[in-house]
């Protein structure tokens, strides 16, 4: 799995710096990846990275603070500056190298009626509802170990693929697709709490699980959701069944992992134990 091994350099070694024990998980990543900063829990630093989300939040875990910095898959390749500030005074900076995600292209053809399900209005309405559900997310780390494949099959559509619908570019693939028949039981990828379970025009029956510290997994196009908002789930629990609801060309599960509102390559959590015991 050379491709996977090259995705996540920071798992192998963590960079430590003199400025108040600030640690950086790595300084090279691919588009659609992320890195994190670690520092003492009694510090109130501000982390700035213009290629990441604004107002990055710090989470406490094992007497340390962690700030996750996801980088959207559409960000241009380049070298960018990370800054850490203490009371608006810069105390640390480091260059972060963003490399090509080597995303493939994906071509699909749909009817006009199906295409309308993916309209800008419907996409925004769905994004707004899920963003609202994420507002009061769990601050503590809920996940344990690696995330699992919610199905028992291999994906057939990769993360980040440039999407052409009826020969028109409509964006990039925000997750991975698993080609499973309607009614296939789906498993929770890791421990967490259900924060959204409803029908959306574009993604159909959609489930979102909060795994804590700003990490969420999402399951789309389901035929049935068997858990409720507020319910806690354990890795491997059955949370529903696959389907073909919403904008689809056939039955499948669209699975994604986000940090806040930014989609990242799900394999970063499926192949590596993030913040696992060292």
What can you tell me about this protein's structure?
Strands 13, 15, 16, 17, 19, 21 and 22 form a 7-stranded antiparallel sheet that branches. Strands 1-2-4-7-6 form a 5-stranded antiparallel sheet, with no helix packed on it. A 4-stranded mixed sheet has the order 3-9-8-5, with no helix packed on it. The relative contact order is 0.17. It has helices at 2-5, 112-116, 120-133, 267-270, and strands at residues 15-16, 23-24, 28-30, 34-40, 45-48, 58-61, 64-70, 78-86, 89-99, 105-108, 162-165, 168-172, 176-178, 185-187, 192-200, 204-210, 215-222, 224-225, 232-233, 238-241, 253-259, 262-264. The protein has 2 domains: 2-99, Macroglobulin (MG2) domain (Immunoglobulin-like); 105-270, Glucose Permease (Domain IIA) (Distorted Sandwich), CATH 2.70.70.10. The radius of gyration is 19 Å and the shape is globular. 10% of the residues lie in helices and 40% in strands. The chain is mainly β and 278 residues long. Mean pLDDT is 90; it is low at 1-13.
Outline the biggest β-sheet. 7 strands, antiparallel
**Radius of gyration (Å):** 19 Å
**What is the C-level CATH assignment of the largest domain?**
Mainly Beta
Outline: globular
End-to-end separation in angstroms reads 23 Å
Q: Any descriptors?
A:
2 domains, Glucose Permease (Domain IIA), 278 residues, 10% helix, single chain, disordered N terminus, five-stranded antiparallel β-sheet, Immunoglobulin-like, mainly beta, seven-stranded antiparallel β-sheet
